[in-house]
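Write out a record, fold above all:
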Amino acid sequence: MKDILRVVMGEDGRKKSRGVMPIIGWVNPSVNTYMTAAADRRRVSHEELYRRYEEYRGAGFNMVFCMGTAVGASDDGLVEEILEICEKLELGCLLIDAQTYSRPFTEKRLQELYEFASRYASFKGLMVYDEPNVSAFPTLAQNYAMFRKYFPDKLFYVNLLPNYATDEQLGTDNYAKYVAEYAKMVKQGYLSYDHYPFIHFEIGIVNNDKYFKNLSVIRRQSLQSRVPFMVFVEVTAFVSHAHIPNREEIFWQVNTALAYGARGIQYFTYGMPEDTSETFSGAVIARDGTRTASYDAVREINAHLAEVSGILAKCRNTGVIFTGIAPMNEFGKTITIPREDLITSYGRLSYVRSGNVLTGCFDCEGSEVYYVANNDFCNYSEVELEFSQSVVLLMIRGGKKREVIVDRIFRLILNAGEGVLLQIK
């Protein structure tokens, strides 16, 4: 099966700074595009809309969910305008279609979408369903079979539920079965899911023991199905008493996901959603359009992602090496890293010592790659890696590359939540 994420991202010489790993923000710059007065539905100017998307691109995003409007929902040309702006900024765009989102597809509508969307190089796929129950899987499988006839190289975007969803939400009492059944029935070429670990009022802890267990299930299914997977990173608090994830907690989510083999990063959220049954706070961009503290944090980690993505996109995760202790949950216990994911060495890496560190081990088309993530989002970690022989390492840290000659022992001090990529040359 072709790697649909690499196909969609186009590893064909586009700007290197763009990266080849999808980096997307939920609730994009199109939200609140209309002026708020009920009697005045005039849209913001083209210049203002372009500025918002340019700001989005400036934070290191390379793909956008076209939310806040939909194909067929209006005739004011907003979707076309967004697609054209995205084309200029080299942003991929995932559209929402009012006639197909969460609904059965028809050949007639797909033909209309093809005639409309194929005019734009920025069109990269269709948003189809968010967090489906198993009862939706048969329809999604039928929809995908129709979709790929028209759009074989585009994303059929479905995002799965997390493992803390209720049995009623999942439609089953077994999360691994939920994911396996989806992969078996829909076969869309990748997996995506959300899991938000900081739904709690205290800084320095996660809300349950399910974070790594969720990563484990998705990683295992990804390897079994031979497809990549994408994750969501929590930036916005959506429970009234929860704290807003800080820079180190954002970095920890991204870097532990990369150590586990994630091939796409999605942020919840970029723009600030309107309150509904949930109360939102934080985000990357506030409701008044100003940048929050998360903007600089996200821009910093995204610059790193752009550099490591070219290597990680070609890698297969072979396991993780865990040393030290994992973060604490709200019950005062360290969270569990599933034993079936753990290895003690890989290739020429014989030992990892010291520090609270998660080291993802990868086969990169025959070369050895290690992604070393500080598994502590409150403190720095000192780590020592011992190799079986002298090696030359390509190190990517903070978006910068350099070669390091290592006489068997390599020592690092990682900042809270930080991750570093090492490749043996």
